[in-house]
């Protein structure tokens, strides 16, 4: 059995109520639920939340909310893996128990049903704990700059001052959309960014982290320009 778990706590600080704030015509979380449903991958789609309003919105758009996330996993310091372990611990007590569980972030409106399906194929076709969305950095990380305390510029990697960009190894980062994992990997809290994980590579134009209002406005412009409004 395959299950989607969408973590969505109620206490967002930088963008209050961002999980259910309207984004391009729907509550934000509705886009993640919709992508999960359209993928056809899941026997159950569950939202892990501590918030009654989020639970009501999730159920309205077709997800289940069979338990309340405990307070100790609902503060600013709660990480994805402990939240997922809690959900999987609940799931394995049910019948049938899940084999694969996909964490889909509630604020990931660019998540594609096709990408979710690709992630499951990658996980099932290889010996791996996880398969998750990644994308490339738009500029070589080896030529990154930092500001000193005096406000001056300093390279992180001085040895690459004269290296041509095209000669540098391409770098990837977490796209922050979804994380397929085997149930036992979540239960054991194995690290996601490790050698037993595989990438689902996404184009940069379909990736946008949403942590600030500037991110939110950028995401709305990107989403509209891509013609994703249904």
**DSSP helix count?**
6
Amount of beta strand: 15-25%
CATH architecture: Alpha-Beta Complex
Number of strands: 10
SSE topology string? EEEHEHHEHEEEEHEH
CATH fold title: Spore Coat Polysaccharide Biosynthesis Protein SpsA, Chain A
Distance between the termini: 29 Å
The gyration radius over C-alpha positions equals 19 Å
Query: Share of helix among residues?
Result: 25-40%
Strand order of the largest sheet: 4-1-5-9-6-10
Mean pLDDT across every amino acid position: 95
| Count of distinct structural domains | 1
Unreliable stretches (pLDDT < 50, length at least 5) are none
CATH class: Alpha Beta
Under CATH, the homologous superfamily reads Spore Coat Polysaccharide Biosynthesis Protein SpsA, Chain A
Structural class: alpha/beta
Report the biggest beta sheet as strand number plus sense, adding barrel if it closes: 6 strands, mixed
**What is the global morphology?**
globular
Structural description of this entry:
- This protein is α/β, with parallel strands linked by helices and 230 residues long.
- It has a single domain, classed as Alpha-Beta Complex (Spore Coat Polysaccharide Biosynthesis Protein SpsA, Chain A).
- It has 6 helices and 10 strands, in the order E-E-E-H-E-H-H-E-H-E-E-E-E-H-E-H.
- The strands form 3 sheets. The protein has a 6-stranded mixed beta sheet with strand order 4-1-5-9-6-10, with helices on both faces. A two-stranded antiparallel sheet has the order 2-3. It has a two-stranded antiparallel sheet with strand order 7-8.
- A hairpin with a 2-residue loop joins strand 2 and strand 3.
- The chain starts with a strand and ends in a 5-residue tail after the last helix.
């Amino acid at each position: 059995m395959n299950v989607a778990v969408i973590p969505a706590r109620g206490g967002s600080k930088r963008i209050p109520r961002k999980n259910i704030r309207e984004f391009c015509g729907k509550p934000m979380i509705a886009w993640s639920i919709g992508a999960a449903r359209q993928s056809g991958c899941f026997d159950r789609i569950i939202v892990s939340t501590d918030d009654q309003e989020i639970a009501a919105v999730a159920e309205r758009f077709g997800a289940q909310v069979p338990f309340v996330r405990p307070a100790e996993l609902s503060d600013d310091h709660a990480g994805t893996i402990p939240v997922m372990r809690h959900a999987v611990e609940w799931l394995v007590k049910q019948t049938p128990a899940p084999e694969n569980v996909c964490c889909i972030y509630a604020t990931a409106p660019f998540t594609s049903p096709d990408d979710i399906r690709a992630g499951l194929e990658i996980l099932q076709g290889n010996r791996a704990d996880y398969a998750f969305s990644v994308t490339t950095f738009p500029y070589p990380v080896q030529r990154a700059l930092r500001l000193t305390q005096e406000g001056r510029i300093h390279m992180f990697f001085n040895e690459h001052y004269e290296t041509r960009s095209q000669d540098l190894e391409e770098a990837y980062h977490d796209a922050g959309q979804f994380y397929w994992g085997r149930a036992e990997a979540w239960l054991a809290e194995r690290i996601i960014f490790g050698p037993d994980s595989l990438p689902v590579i996404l184009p940069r134009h379909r990736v946008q982290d949403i942590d600030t209002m500037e991110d939110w406005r950028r995401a709305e412009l990107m989403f509209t320009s891509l013609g994703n409004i249904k």
